[in-house]
Every structure is written in structure tokens, then in C-alpha cells.
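Comment thread on ticket #2218

A.B. wrote:
> Attaching the input chain for the structure job we discussed in standup.
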Amino acid sequence: MQKPTVFIVDDDTAVRDSLTLMIEQAGMHVQSFENANHFLKAYRPDFFGCVIIDVKMPGMDGLQLQEELAWRKILLPIIFLTGHGDIPMSVKAIKGGAIDFLTKPVIREKLLICVRTAFAEARKRINDVSNNKEMASCLTKLTRREREVMLLAIQGYANKEIGSYLGISYRTVEIHKSKIMQKTGANNLLDLARIARESNLNL
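C.D. wrote:
> Ran it. Output below, let me know if you need it in another format.
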């Protein structure tokens, strides 16, 4: 995994320069942008790290940028930094998935703690996406009948009930379940249910 970068989006040049200096002195990479549109135009799918966003900016403000990132399914964790924050605004930001909501002038150590927390969250999000893709790939290996058996099994139906519902024998259900476990790598039904849920596959 590549080294993470802190992306700063703030219309105040002095703030961008100050944040860049603090973060680079801690040995981290930084890229800064003067508004949301510049950041969105520069964004690439391989961007990895976190983004520090000013709330009050001309054009698209910080909360609108947060919504845009969510809509585009951009996984970068967000830290809000503002001199104009209020409680309702901070609650909305955190509910939207922001890591933290800091006020200017920010204390260097608090900022760096937030950045490191955001980096850890970024790694987790990427790993989760990778795992979900692997799980979805496993489920696509199932035959139509195996998918039917799996759906009923994770809903708690017994083998005899599944066989009766699908018009197949108890023994055939057992064979299908064995193949399902083998193909998905699940250890038990709870594990199988988790794989189905986390894969976001429409069974």
C-alpha cells in the first residue's frame, strides 16, 4: 500500500501554508487545494490518505464537498477545520462520517493525532472494500441452486425444510451446502451469513 497523503482544501493561503508546514514536519506528504472544485478535478482513484476540509469556502462549501465525496464513493476520511464552526454543523459533519471537527487555530499535536487516526481509518476502508470484492467473487462461483440453498440456509431453515421447499432430497441439500462452504471458504452458517451480508451481493 502506498504512503498516505494529507489533502488540504482551504481557500485561505496562510492556513494552507501553515497546515502544510506542520504536517510535512511530521514526515507526511501533503497536497493542498484552494477550493473544492480544484480538489475534485485533481482527484484520482489511487489517492490514499485523508482530506482536511475548511467548512466555509466560496462556491462549494465543506459540507457540500463531504456530500459530493460520499456520492462519488470516494473513501478518503475527512477532517473538518474551521473558524466558523457551530454545534449543529459539527454534528452534521460527524454524522456524515467525518473523523473530527477542529476549530482554528488548531493545536499541532491534536491535528497530527487526527491525521494518524484518519490514516488508520483509510487503511481499514480500503481493506474492507478489498475483502468485500473477494467475498462477492466467491459468491459468484455458486450455481443458481447453490445460491437458493444458501439464501434459505442463512435464514435459518433446516435441511429438510430447504429440501421440501426446493423439491430436492435432504441428502442433495447437504451436498449443496458442502459445496457452498468449500467455494466461499465459510466455516459455518454464521460465517456464511456474514459473507453474504458484507459482499453486498443481491442474492
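A.B. wrote:
> Thanks. Noting for the ticket: The chain has a mean pLDDT of 88.
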